[in-house]
Amino acid sequence: MKVSFPRAPAPSPAAVESGRLLFAGPVDFIKGVVAMEGLPDPDRPEICFAGRSNVGKSSLINALTGRKGIARASNTPGRTQELNFFALGDRAYLVDLPGYGFAKAPVAVVAKWQALQKRYLAGRPNLRRVFALIDARHGIKPVDHETMTLLDRSAVPFQVVVTKADKIGAGALAQTLAQIEAELQKHPAAFPELIVTSSEKGHGIEALRAVIDALTRG
């Protein structure tokens, strides 16, 4: 049976304010993790951001937090191969994964990173949801399917966040959303709503904050 993937509805004013307050509080880079034994204790909910290189993860995290430099920690030399943990006060962790296309390293180093990513995504008990970022200009690519299939097999729910929606026209965006909807039919772990964003214009940021706020309660 075909599943519909509409845009997420606009959050209520109360949900918008609750999400704003969550991200207006302390947001701190905690650590970069290079091995499973280095993970923080699973004592709070985790939300993970994944996507291809240059999909706009750092820009999105900066827009969510309202802090222009908060995600720079994941882009400094030596951290690009790590799982980067950011604390939302003592409420939750945001986890930033390096882009799928990261390849400026020896093959053995890339293989080690890929193994770490797979182990984390498949076995983290407090991982509430993975946000799979998809560039509005390109849609879902084969490398995206690889990670989505891993999440299917691990029964980890993921939700597509479309980035850079301001970079294309309305007609092209509609075509991209149709392509994403068709491709997501292959993935049972996909949450049946899309969040369309522009970090530069602020579109969709309130909706994404509200979703994260709801996911990290309790």
UniProtKB/TrEMBL annotation:
Keywords annotated in UniProt: Cell cycle, Cell division, GTP-binding, Magnesium, Metal-binding, Nucleotide-binding, Septation
Boundaries of every EngB-type G domain copy: 43-218
One Pfam family cited in the UniProt record for this chain: MMR_HSR1
Any one Gene Ontology BP term: division septum assembly
GO cellular component annotations of the record: cytosol
Single GO MF descriptor: GTP binding
Similarity remark: Belongs to the TRAFAC class TrmE-Era-EngA-EngB-Septin-like GTPase superfamily. EngB GTPase family.
Name this protein carries in UniProt: Probable GTP-binding protein EngB
Organism whose genome encodes this protein: Paracoccus alkenifer
Lineage, opening ranks: Bacteria, Pseudomonadati, Pseudomonadota, Alphaproteobacteria, Rhodobacterales
